[in-house]
Design goal:
By secondary structure, the chain is α/β, with parallel strands linked by helices. Helices cover 47% and strands 13% of the residues. It has a domain of 112 residues: 3-Layer(aba) Sandwich (Rossmann fold). It is built from eight helices and five strands; from the N terminus they run H-H-E-H-E-H-H-H-E-E-H-H-E.
């Protein structure tokens, strides 16, 4: 299926880099991670071979993806965020999502895989994006630290792609 965005506009540099990494590593299971506000959803919109972790867990009717979480689980994780909710979400995501070659998964959780692509932006740009979205800066930077820690603990090969 051809992505209409590819016909009408110049690709962001990060999309070109990620596409190249995907092509060089087609036989590998690839996990693409980054904190909120680094542009994962925007990049994902240019990469039809990849899928969003949230689409898999919560479903996406437009894309024909049935949710992996039950309605009760979705209601629980969409309520007030607590560390317990975060732990539950990570545990369920690891149980339910298995990355396959040629089907990279984008998200905020490091999954068992052969390669991790970490999407980053410089901290000053991240702060500006957080401000524009009215996101919580502390939460975004805590998530960033958590992702970096998970990558390090995983021992999985990592490639960093800056999305500016």
């Amino acid at each position: 299926m051809e992505n209409p965005k590819l016909n009408n506009e110049k690709l962001p540099v990060a999309v070109e880099k990620i596409s190249y990494i995907f092509s060089l590593n087609a036989e590998k299971r690839i996990c693409v991670v980054g904190t909120s506000c680094v542009g994962k959803s925007t990049l994902l919109s240019y990469l039809p071979e990849a899928v969003d972790m949230d689409d898999l867990l919560f479903g996406n009717e437009q894309k024909g993806i049935e949710p992996l979480l039950t309605q009760e689980e979705r209601d629980y994780v969409c309520g007030p965020w607590t560390p317990e909710v975060g732990q539950f979400m990570t545990k369920k995501a690891h149980e339910l999502i298995k990355i396959e070659a040629r089907r990279p998964v984008f998200g905020t959780i490091v999954f068992p895989s052969d390669l991790v692509i970490e999407i980053t932006v410089p901290d000053n740009i991240l702060r500006e994006r957080v401000r524009r979205r009215n996101a919580d800066e502390k939460d975004v930077f805590n998530m960033k630290a958590q992702i970096e820690s998970e990558i390090k603990k995983s021992g999985i090969e990592k490639i960093v792609v800056e999305n500016i």
